[in-house]
Amino acid sequence: MNILLYIDPGTGSMLFAILIGIIGTLNYLMKNWIVKLRFVLSSGKKVETNTDKLPFVIFSDDKRYWNVFEPICREFDRRGVDMVYMTASPDDPALENPYKHIKGEFIGKNNRAFAKMNFLNAGIVLSTTPGLDVYQWKRSKDVQYYVHMQHAANDISGYRMFGVDYFDAVMLSGEYQVQEVRDLEKLRGLPEKDLIKIGIPYMDEMSKRLEQAPQEKMEGRTVLLAPSWGKSSIFQKYGSRILEVLLKTGYHIIVRPHPQSFSSEKETIEKIMRDYPASDQLEWNQDNDNFEVLKRADILVSDFSGIIFDFSLVYDKPVIYADTEFDNSPYDAWWLDTPYWTFTALPRIGQKLTMDNLDSLKEMIDECIQDPKYAKGRQEAREETWEYKGEGTERAVEYLLDKYETLTQVAEEK
Q1: Separation CA 26–CA 345 (nearest Å)
Q2: Do residues 206 and 310 touch, judged by C-beta distance below 8 A?
Q3: Cβ-count burial of 340 within 10 angstroms (0-12 exposed, 13-18 middle, 19+ buried)?
Q4: DSSP 63
Q5: From CA 86, how far away is CA 63, in angstroms rounded?
Q6: Which has the minimum average pLDDT: 33-47, 96-110, 382-396?
Q7: What's the pLDDT tens digit per position in 273-318?
Q8: In terms of pTM, does the model score above 0.70?
Q9: Quick check: 258 and 305 in contact, CB under 8 A?
Q10: Sheet containing 54-60: which strands, arranged edge to edge?
Q11: Which domains does the chain have, with CATH numbers?
Q12: First vs last C-alpha separation in the chain
């Protein structure tokens, strides 16, 4: 009986899309009927039909993106502009934000959140969530403009296929990202999106915070292991052996798994945590804010996680990146002939870890920290992927306000 009732994820997504389509049609017909009724009741006079439209909405599918959006929210509040922050996390810091003009709203988890977004009535929606109009998240007929903002300083082609195809605009931080989007548009016959290089607001904030933070000298060296998740991640390739080697270095080890690991790879993570419990030398970190743990570490060991560039470009520290034989087949990068920028930057900011040199990890750590060529490489990568350093928030907000004014004028003319 359980087998008969099972619905695979692909079929479930399709059924959800069909249901949303039916509901959307009924919703449209009902609105049309109400407009006509109001017209009749007002004796044919013009009536305002969209008084409940929200000018600006941020959609966040997880609480960990508050640090990405918080600078934008603060600037909107400073300018006295109202915005609704819709989140799929019931414990999102945005729900208790201190800003008068920013209203936090929990809209449910998973499909419930997407169902809310699919019938949203808004001017502009800003989100880091990719896949608009691909799976569960559909474009609402009552939203004028969708804007995507990245949550890491790396390739825009690193999203799952069609990640940003159906947004109206994408905020970027480097010219190589612009080229990636334009190449994908040509390959897929898509109209050109509005591409705006704004910089990286959340990294600007981290940089300011780091400048103001007290400098604390830790005894000995601290190594941060921050794996991503999925079949190309460190734990999937090296298993717990990497922890054995790290502990043999004698350095203090902090392990910070990707938050998604605790749901998508729950059994793997729980087993490793049982086999290697916290001790004086080993620390497991799950802080929502990664500022302090990045500040404490002398070097980062990771794979293809965006945290690599947070650490190397903001904190100006070296990295060791795992050779995980990254499979690009599920990603937009598969379509492109141009080199994946992330993999051109990594050799300049650190060393590659392989199965062959895993036992030499301590020597690699020492060399990366001491060799000045990696500091030079970090500066090169910073210039390529973090344009307009310190100006990200202002540029993003100016674009959103200008675009809303343009959309409003066009709507009034119609």
Answers
A1: 50
A2: yes
A3: buried
A4: G
A5: 11
A6: 33-47
A7: 999 999 999 999 998 788 999 999 999 999 877 789 999 999 999 9
A8: yes
A9: yes
A10: 102-106, 83-87, 54-60, 122-127, 143-149, 169-172, 194-197
A11: 41-200+390-413 (3.40.50), 214-385 (3.40.50.2000)
A12: 56
pLDDT digits (tens, 9 = 90+) for 337-348: 999 999 899 999
Pull the structure tokens for residue 323.
């050779």
What is the Cα–Cα distance from 42 to 54, expressed in whole angstroms? 25
Place of tokens 């060991």: 301
pLDDT confidence bin for 404, thresholds 50/70/90: very high
Burial class (CB in 10 A: 0-12, 13-18, 19+), 16: middle
Residues shown for the chain: 414
Token reading at 67 = 């640090």
Q: In which order are the strands placed within the sheet that holds 252-255?
A: 282-284, 252-255, 222-226, 299-302, 319-322, 350-353
In whole angstroms, give the CA distance from residue 295 to residue 297: 6
Q: What is the 8-class DSSP label of residue 70?
A: H
Task: Please answer whether residues 60 and 129 qualify as being in contact, where contact means their C-beta atoms are separated by less than 8 angstroms.
Answer: yes
Listed ranges 89-93, 211-215, 328-332; the one with the highest mean pLDDT: 89-93
Please tell me the predicted confidence (pLDDT) of residue 4: 44
Largest CA distance in the chain: 84
